[in-house]
Amino acid sequence: FIQGQPKVEKCIEFGSGSSCSSIYLAEQGFEVDAVDICEVAIERAKTLPNAHMVNWVKADLLADDLFESAITENGYDLVFDMQCYHVLRLIDETKVATNIYRALKPTGTAVVVVGAALPNRDNDSVAPDGKDIEGKPGPPLLTLDQLRLPLERAGLTTVQLSLSRFNPTPHYASLPGGLAPLAWMGIFRKIQWNAEDAYALEVQAPFSTYILEGKKSIETRAYALPPTLLHKPIYLLESQQGQDGVSSVGDFIPAQVPTSDTSSVRIIGTVVFTACTQYTSQVQFDADREKHLVPVGSAYDYTVETDTHRFEQNLNNIKAQPIISMKEGKIKELFAWEVGSFEANVYEEFPALKRVHRSFFKVVK
Ligand SMILES: C[S@@+](CC[C@H](N)C(=O)[O-])C[C@H]1O[C@@H](n2cnc3c(N)ncnc32)[C@H](O)[C@@H]1O
Description:
The protein is an alpha/beta fold. It has two domains: 182 residues, Rossmann fold; 112 residues, Archaeosine Trna-guanine Transglycosylase, Chain: A, domain 4, CATH 2.30.130. It is 19% helix and 30% strand. The chain is built from nine helices and 17 strands. A hairpin with a 2-residue loop joins strand 16 and strand 17. Helix 3 runs parallel beside helix 4. The longest helix is centred in the first third of the chain and has 19 residues. The site of S-adenosylmethionine has 18 residues, from strand 2 and helix 3.
């Protein structure tokens, strides 16, 4: 993940301790502030090779005046947190999540790595699932919701959740099973939806047309409609049907004049969503079939199947790298976005669009 990021960006590590993550980030081209409350840990980190590349800061990440003295609010492209969030949440979950949010620039990304609890797992080298294990060897274990919900409540958007293991250490090797504990890696983004900006939603043909023909009055998605976009006209960006669940459009679409009806992507009108609710049962989803038109058994259908079983079988094969995505590893969430109104339109010109989140693009002026 880190290697794919633009270089010379500002990064802050929360709870850097005496490990070498911050130095690694600096070596990758980031300008890094490494923050820890513990003087001894910082002094030890300073003895590591290339430690001079990092700005070491002694501060309490839960201090009321954190942004007045030690670190800059809205100042960082990347917040990196390896095993600090999962400690600080025991003291003040809301505050640590809020401080991660506040530290980030408006388009910044947070990478948070915590001990992982899996449902129905009792065979790992550390403690029982879903419980913090203070006093036992290994990190606190968090469920996915314990990781993501406080950060989402603070205003961040979950981009990806993956399962990995912490790096092997002699200590972990000496425990029964010899494996380092499982870890969740969450990637979160601070997205600022601006009521003054124009947005476009990619919808694959033929569902895009069904909306404009009034045949499809509910759009179903695996995430909630950002509240700022409720009751607001959104461009309908039609793309061609491709692989299920995979966008066939790049992350940036240059301004263009549509040449023909066979253009692979085009804006065909606007849609206004007037409500967004989450489906909580199969019955509820089935009752809306006529409205959302999702084909039975398709990749977009309601399902409560989880891949937890698959992960259970493969736990011993999960190494520190590579990580595996948990996107489909949890119960699929489905939301109903109710179409309030729509308008078909032919556009002479096509603005440049930049993907900001999932299927949403922002019109770039
Ligand atoms: C489990 S260690 C993780 C260290 C390092 N990130 C790593 O992966 O090895 C947690 C770190 O958070 C730091 N920490 C705990 N409370 C803190 C606070 N209120 N403000 C800043 N750092 C804190 C501790 O001093 C410790 O270095």
